[in-house]
Design a protein that fits this description.
By secondary structure, the protein is α+β, with helices and mostly antiparallel strands. The protein is built from 5 helices and 7 strands. A 7-stranded mixed β-sheet has the order 1-2-3-4-5-7-6, with helices on both faces. A hairpin with a 2-residue loop joins strand 3 and strand 4.
Length: about 180
Protein backbone atom coordinates (compact mmCIF):
# COMPACT_ATOMS: atom_id res chain seq x y z
CA UNK A 1 0.00 0.00 0.00
CA UNK A 2 1.22 3.48 -0.82
CA UNK A 3 1.50 5.52 2.37
CA UNK A 4 0.91 9.28 2.36
CA UNK A 5 3.89 11.38 3.35
CA UNK A 6 4.63 15.03 4.03
CA UNK A 7 7.61 17.31 4.54
CA UNK A 8 7.29 17.19 8.33
CA UNK A 9 5.30 14.06 9.14
CA UNK A 10 5.80 10.34 8.91
CA UNK A 11 2.39 8.77 8.44
CA UNK A 12 1.94 5.04 8.90
CA UNK A 13 -1.10 2.85 9.25
CA UNK A 14 -1.85 2.68 12.96
CA UNK A 15 -0.62 -0.24 15.01
CA UNK A 16 -1.55 -1.59 18.45
CA UNK A 17 1.54 0.11 19.92
CA UNK A 18 -0.11 3.48 19.05
CA UNK A 19 -2.96 2.78 21.48
CA UNK A 20 -1.50 4.62 24.47
CA UNK A 21 -0.81 7.74 22.38
CA UNK A 22 -4.40 7.66 21.11
CA UNK A 23 -5.82 7.29 24.62
CA UNK A 24 -3.60 10.13 25.85
CA UNK A 25 -5.22 12.40 23.21
CA UNK A 26 -8.67 11.47 24.47
CA UNK A 27 -7.69 12.38 28.02
CA UNK A 28 -6.91 15.97 26.98
CA UNK A 29 -10.00 18.10 27.65
CA UNK A 30 -9.09 20.70 25.01
CA UNK A 31 -8.44 18.09 22.32
CA UNK A 32 -11.83 16.50 23.02
CA UNK A 33 -13.79 19.71 23.66
CA UNK A 34 -15.68 19.66 20.34
CA UNK A 35 -16.25 15.89 20.33
CA UNK A 36 -17.04 14.99 23.91
CA UNK A 37 -17.21 18.29 25.75
CA UNK A 38 -13.98 17.46 27.56
CA UNK A 39 -11.67 14.63 28.47
CA UNK A 40 -12.88 11.08 27.98
CA UNK A 41 -13.17 9.05 31.18
CA UNK A 42 -12.08 5.62 30.00
CA UNK A 43 -13.58 3.97 33.07
CA UNK A 44 -17.09 4.95 31.96
CA UNK A 45 -16.91 5.64 28.20
CA UNK A 46 -16.59 2.86 25.63
CA UNK A 47 -15.72 3.52 21.99
CA UNK A 48 -18.83 1.71 20.75
CA UNK A 49 -21.03 4.06 22.80
CA UNK A 50 -19.88 7.35 21.25
CA UNK A 51 -20.41 8.97 17.86
CA UNK A 52 -16.74 9.87 17.33
CA UNK A 53 -13.78 7.69 16.44
CA UNK A 54 -11.69 6.40 19.34
CA UNK A 55 -8.95 4.43 17.55
CA UNK A 56 -7.00 1.75 19.36
CA UNK A 57 -4.38 0.83 16.77
CA UNK A 58 -6.28 -1.81 14.85
CA UNK A 59 -8.39 0.38 12.55
CA UNK A 60 -7.66 -0.10 8.83
CA UNK A 61 -8.21 3.54 7.81
CA UNK A 62 -6.31 5.38 10.55
CA UNK A 63 -2.79 6.73 10.03
CA UNK A 64 -0.55 7.65 12.93
CA UNK A 65 1.41 10.86 12.40
CA UNK A 66 4.86 11.30 13.94
CA UNK A 67 7.39 14.08 13.45
CA UNK A 68 10.22 13.34 11.08
CA UNK A 69 13.51 13.43 12.91
CA UNK A 70 12.53 12.63 16.50
CA UNK A 71 9.47 10.43 15.71
CA UNK A 72 7.42 12.26 18.35
CA UNK A 73 3.70 11.52 18.29
CA UNK A 74 1.69 14.31 16.63
CA UNK A 75 -1.74 12.71 16.28
CA UNK A 76 -3.75 10.68 13.81
CA UNK A 77 -5.60 11.11 10.52
CA UNK A 78 -8.27 8.90 9.02
CA UNK A 79 -9.98 8.50 5.70
CA UNK A 80 -12.90 6.15 6.29
CA UNK A 81 -14.82 4.91 3.25
CA UNK A 82 -18.57 5.37 3.34
CA UNK A 83 -18.94 3.91 -0.16
CA UNK A 84 -16.36 2.94 -2.80
CA UNK A 85 -16.39 6.57 -4.04
CA UNK A 86 -17.01 8.53 -0.81
CA UNK A 87 -14.79 8.82 2.28
CA UNK A 88 -14.85 10.80 5.51
CA UNK A 89 -11.74 12.68 6.60
CA UNK A 90 -10.93 12.97 10.29
CA UNK A 91 -7.96 14.05 12.37
CA UNK A 92 -6.95 14.61 15.96
CA UNK A 93 -3.67 16.23 16.99
CA UNK A 94 -1.92 16.87 20.28
CA UNK A 95 -2.37 20.44 21.50
CA UNK A 96 1.38 21.01 21.20
CA UNK A 97 1.01 20.42 17.45
CA UNK A 98 -1.79 22.93 16.92
CA UNK A 99 -1.18 26.15 14.97
CA UNK A 100 1.82 24.80 13.06
CA UNK A 101 0.10 23.76 9.86
CA UNK A 102 0.49 20.06 10.63
CA UNK A 103 -3.24 19.30 10.55
CA UNK A 104 -3.51 20.81 7.08
CA UNK A 105 -0.29 19.14 5.95
CA UNK A 106 -1.34 15.66 7.08
CA UNK A 107 -4.94 16.02 5.92
CA UNK A 108 -3.80 17.25 2.49
CA UNK A 109 -1.53 14.22 2.09
CA UNK A 110 -4.35 11.89 3.05
CA UNK A 111 -6.89 13.57 0.76
CA UNK A 112 -4.37 13.37 -2.08
CA UNK A 113 -3.87 9.68 -1.31
CA UNK A 114 -7.65 9.20 -1.27
CA UNK A 115 -8.11 10.72 -4.71
CA UNK A 116 -4.94 9.42 -6.35
CA UNK A 117 -4.61 5.95 -4.83
CA UNK A 118 -7.89 4.90 -3.22
CA UNK A 119 -10.00 6.28 -6.09
CA UNK A 120 -12.52 8.31 -4.12
CA UNK A 121 -14.58 10.90 -5.99
CA UNK A 122 -15.62 12.82 -2.87
CA UNK A 123 -14.05 13.41 0.53
CA UNK A 124 -16.11 15.02 3.27
CA UNK A 125 -15.47 16.15 6.82
CA UNK A 126 -17.59 17.53 9.61
CA UNK A 127 -17.21 19.35 12.89
CA UNK A 128 -19.12 21.59 15.25
CA UNK A 129 -19.77 25.00 13.69
CA UNK A 130 -17.89 26.66 16.57
CA UNK A 131 -14.72 24.65 15.92
CA UNK A 132 -12.95 27.40 13.96
CA UNK A 133 -9.59 25.61 13.87
CA UNK A 134 -10.92 22.47 12.24
CA UNK A 135 -13.07 24.48 9.84
CA UNK A 136 -10.00 26.46 8.80
CA UNK A 137 -8.15 23.23 7.99
CA UNK A 138 -11.05 22.13 5.78
CA UNK A 139 -11.08 25.49 4.01
CA UNK A 140 -7.31 25.38 3.43
CA UNK A 141 -7.79 21.99 1.79
CA UNK A 142 -10.18 23.60 -0.67
CA UNK A 143 -13.25 21.96 0.83
CA UNK A 144 -16.60 23.68 0.41
CA UNK A 145 -19.11 24.22 3.20
CA UNK A 146 -22.14 22.22 2.10
CA UNK A 147 -24.55 22.60 5.01
CA UNK A 148 -25.08 23.16 8.70
CA UNK A 149 -27.24 20.66 10.57
CA UNK A 150 -28.84 21.17 13.95
CA UNK A 151 -29.16 17.72 15.50
CA UNK A 152 -30.83 17.25 18.86
CA UNK A 153 -28.68 15.70 21.59
CA UNK A 154 -29.75 14.13 24.86
CA UNK A 155 -26.74 15.69 26.57
CA UNK A 156 -25.55 18.61 24.38
CA UNK A 157 -22.06 20.02 24.82
CA UNK A 158 -21.32 23.76 24.80
CA UNK A 159 -21.47 25.13 21.26
CA UNK A 160 -23.70 22.40 19.87
CA UNK A 161 -26.55 24.89 19.58
CA UNK A 162 -24.60 26.49 16.68
CA UNK A 163 -24.91 23.24 14.70
CA UNK A 164 -22.60 20.86 12.92
CA UNK A 165 -21.05 21.72 9.56
CA UNK A 166 -20.23 19.46 6.64
CA UNK A 167 -17.53 20.26 4.10
CA UNK A 168 -16.82 18.40 0.87
CA UNK A 169 -14.18 18.23 -1.81
CA UNK A 170 -14.61 16.60 -5.21
CA UNK A 171 -11.74 14.88 -7.01
CA UNK A 172 -12.29 17.10 -10.06
CA UNK A 173 -11.71 20.16 -7.85
CA UNK A 174 -8.65 18.74 -6.07
CA UNK A 175 -6.32 18.23 -9.01
CA UNK A 176 -3.33 18.11 -6.71
CA UNK A 177 -4.11 21.50 -5.20
CA UNK A 178 -1.79 22.24 -2.32
CA UNK A 179 -3.32 24.02 0.68
CA UNK A 180 -2.83 27.75 1.15
Amino acid sequence: MTIPHTANLMMTLCQPYDREDFIHLERDAEVMRFLHGGAVDHDTVRSQDVSFLMPRGTEPYVWTARRKGDFGFVGWFCLCPETPLLAELGYRLKRESWGRGLATEGAAALVDWGFQTAGYDTVFAGTMAVNRGSRRVMEKLGMTHMRTDFPLFDDPIPGSEEGEVRYELQRRDWAGVKPV
